UniProtKB/TrEMBL annotation:
Keyword line: Cytoplasm, DNA-binding, NAD, Repressor, Transcription, Transcription regulation
Region (Disordered): 1-34, 235-287
Start-end of Basic and acidic residues biased regions: 1-15
Assembly information from the UniProt record: Homodimer.
Main location: cytoplasm
Compartments (UniProt record): Cytoplasm
Protein name: Redox-sensing transcriptional repressor Rex
Family designation: Belongs to the transcriptional regulatory Rex family.
Comp. bias intervals (Low complexity): 245-262
PANTHER family reported in the protein's UniProt record: REDOX-SENSING TRANSCRIPTIONAL REPRESSOR REX, REDOX-SENSING TRANSCRIPTIONAL REPRESSOR REX 1
UniProt domain CoA-binding: residue ranges: 108-209
Length: 287
């Protein structure tokens, strides 16, 4: 049977009401996750179409375009994808890399979120060596750095890729989460490149704010900020107990946190002046 016939048959088996999004037992056999078999039969076709779009550099796709590429009706496609929990964004469409991962996961081909780490210095290497990601459903599929001394080196069997090949790596792996562990001056450029190729979630360690389009999530990690918070509690404890727990000389002038930082560290009232002054000049060296 040709794939067009398979699709037509699958379409005939599907729910009569395209607006309906909940799995319908009356539609016949259902896969273990509650997706009707007729939909499951179409998923490989969607996956193939998405892989082609991704290889061609398409980042977002409308339901109409994807439906055409897959040879199904747009309403059918929307209904199928809604069963996976993917609804797309009005006026934007579907994120190709993310949807590709969702469809692959529904088919049991991808059980973990693919993550790429950019910047394999002290921090990136430590993250790449961390074995705890996998047990939480993340798989590091790419390590990227421009340093020729690092390119080709392996961490847990995964070779470090040259930054020049970032786009190829993203197309090949379908990574949707990017970890930015580059020097701050490189972070925005790296982020732009990640986002252009379908990465929709960024974990940013570089001490700079990142500009990203709507729909892309950025989480900033700042270990210095965490230490400041601990220092604040130490200070409070010392005040309550009447003894100083740390080296700070007591409350003083509180310096504003880095004026250029649009995600400023909340300054706890009464925090030790020294700790805060340190944070105000937050630089890479201090990390
Ligand atoms: N948020 C935190 O808590 C925290 C903690 C430690 C470090 N940091 C920050 O993380 C970043 C990395 O720190 P580190 O100690 O690993 O630095 P590092 O100098 O050891 O490593 C930086 C790596 O980035 C690579 N690099 C340079 N330009 C690049 C580019 N354009 N694209 C990709 N990679 C590039 C370098 O080759 C190097 O391997 C820095 O921005 C640092 O300030 C943040």
């Amino acid at each position: 049977m040709s794939s067009a016939e398979t699709l037509r048959e699958a379409r005939d088996d599907a729910h009569p009401n395209p607006a309906e999004t909940a799995p319908d037992p009356a539609a016949g056999e259902t896969a273990p996750r509650g997706i009707p078999d007729a939909t499951v039969a179409r998923l490989p076709v969607y996956l193939r179409a998405l892989a082609q779009l991704s290889a061609g550099g398409t980042v977002t796709v409308s339901s109409g375009e994807l439906a055409e590429a897959a040879g199904v009706g747009p309403a059918q496609l929307r209904k199928d994808l809604s069963l996976l929990g993917s609804y797309g964004t009005r006026g934007v469409g579907y994120d190709v890399a993310h949807l590709r991962f969702e469809v692959a996961r529904a088919l049991g081909e991808a059980e973990e979120w693919p993550v790429v780490i950019v910047g394999l210095g002290n921090l990136g290497t430590a993250l790449a060596n961390y074995s705890g990601f996998r047990s939480r459903g993340f798989r590091v599929v790419g390590l990227v750095d421009p340093d020729p001394a690092l390119v080709g080196r392996r961490i847990h069997g995964l070779a470090i890729t040259d930054l020049r090949d970032l786009e190829d790596l993203l197309a090949r792996t379908g990574a949707v989460i990017g970890v930015v562990a580059t020097p701050s001056e490189a972070a925005q450029d790296v982020t732009d490149r990640l986002v252009r190729r379908g990465v929709t979630s960024i974990l940013n360690f570089a001490p700079v704010p990142l500009a990203v389009p709507d729909g892309v999530h950025v989480r900033k990690v700042d270990l210095g900020q965490e230490l400041q918070i601990l220092a604040y509690h130490e200070h409070r404890r010392a005040e309550d107990g009447g003894t100083r727990a740390g080296p700070a000389a007591g409350p003083g002038t509180i310096e504003p946190v880095d004026a250029g930082d649009p995600n400023p560290v909340p300054v706890p009232a009464g925090a030790p002046a020294r700790a805060l002054a340190h944070s105000a000049g937050h630089t890479e060296d201090e990390d």
